[in-house]
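Recap for those who missed Tuesday's class. We walked through two folding examples back to back. For each one, the amino acid string is listed first and its predicted structure tokens come directly after. Nothing is annotated here on purpose, so try labeling regions yourself before you check the end of the notes.
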Amino acid sequence: MSGDQIERGAVLGETTIPGLSAAEIADYSSVSGDDNPVHTDRQLANDLGLEDVPVQGMLLMALANSYIENWQYCETLRKLSMRFVHPALANRSLRIAGKVMVSNREEQTAIVRVMLFQEDKLVAMGDANITLASA
């Protein structure tokens, strides 16, 4: 199958990402300039009702971006938008899934719905506008 044969409803293979450690999340805070202490201070996260420090939304988007770009039928990721619905926490694996919502064979483009889950709870979802790889 090639990109010009992708139809609405096609399901991308799921992938599981091992849980990000609190240290990895803190490192991302440091390099990204996100100095919100909730990402680095477990006691603060606990005080806010979280069991562990939360993963930054931009880091979740980076994982979704990589998932889409690694799909064999994606030539170019043109736009990615995400909505965050529940905190993703440190030390818990993430599952990423995708489904083609719109496919335009004439323009060789598609919109893929991307969903990130943690412990079967939806944590983020969004749409990736892509150019499909040609045969």
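Example two. Treat it independently of the first, because the proteins are unrelated.
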Amino acid sequence: MSGRAARGEHGPGVHPSQGHRRPLTRARGRAWLAGAGVLALAATIVGCGPRAVGTDQLGAGATPVGAGAVSESPRPATPSASPGAGVTSAPGPAVGDPPAALPGRGVPPAAAPQVTRSSTASAAPAPRPTATPGAPGAPGAGRVPGGLSGISAGSLSEVRAWEQFRGSPVDVIVTFSDRSGWAGITQPWLGTSAERFAGFTGIWVISQPFFPTDGGDIASCAAGAYDERWRQFGDWLVRQGRGASIVRPAWEFNGAWFPWSVSKDRTNWVPCFRQVVTSIRATAPQVRIDWTFNAHNTDAFEYYPGDEYVDIVGVDTYDQWPANKDEATFTAQCEQPTGLCAGIAFARKHGKQFSVPEWGLVGTSDTGASKVGQAGGDNPVYISMMHKTMYDNADILAYEAYFNDDLPNNVHSSLINPTTHPKGAALYAQLW
């Protein structure tokens, strides 16, 4: 989710956020110094929740990827994507987004390994930092959960403020191209100045549509009509010295709020994705492709483009649908067929890393979920459980980025500038 047009990230094509997150089961400043209550809560929570998957639960041929950085293991040669080629395994019947009567139409529960701790895990996580009840936690007193860690940002100033807030460096930024026309897609706004990350030493993650808002469709994309545009984008990455960047084509495709939603054209969606990836790689062979779905909707895994077209399995997830006020609720949502835990299990099964490109708290006013009591608000439990889930699966975590946003009609997830959620901000700064 993103509503950053005001900061130049993707022009007028702002997310419609109020219908953005839906349940699977029913219709669905420096305020970070921790008070004693938050710290006591941290001490109680840290150490529980979803656990790591062991190597004995990996799919055939899959191996864990080392923690701490995006994998640079050799990629199998990408086969030529035939324009108009259909999905190799037929998706289910076309249904609305999401059908309240069909919870979890993502992947049969038995098809994905559960995210649980195993004594045969390839590498045990390092000892977890713990909170001391009654003692203030300094920013950065904890550690990032693994992989690259950062923020969704539109300027270097935002990144520096986030680093100061949490006391640890940002080494990945999630960004969104200006999707109002092809010019903003093939030559994004990044790198035009220091403030726009020209000298940023970390990794760029660029979220890209299939086509601009001024015209295009999934069928034309599948037929190869936009291939040259995507080759131009790949060439731009290389010329910027960013050929190994991460690209998220058609992120959150399983929701209904974007023109590239799979619900718009179920037959041609996968062929389109393959065309885009093949074309970008033609000129930027080191680019990393993140196939990102939304955790709060159905219709994800049956539209997997194939291992040869995906490097990272991404999951965007927020504290809503339902509010995750305790460990049991968080775990139940995480283990839903398109929940974060299901995404991690799917990544393991396919020998991939996973990412959490967008995650955050959700305000209890001016949000779609809040109107029906499904927003978590200032919820340290969610912060702690997200850290634990990522920490326990750090061996395959490519990157994670908090979505710090307070624009109207969006998720209101902001931890700083402004501090919308002081308790959540305090625990985040302590753990990261």
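Answers for example two:
The chain has one domain: 5-69+109-431.
Residues 97 and 126 are 40 Å apart (CA to CA).
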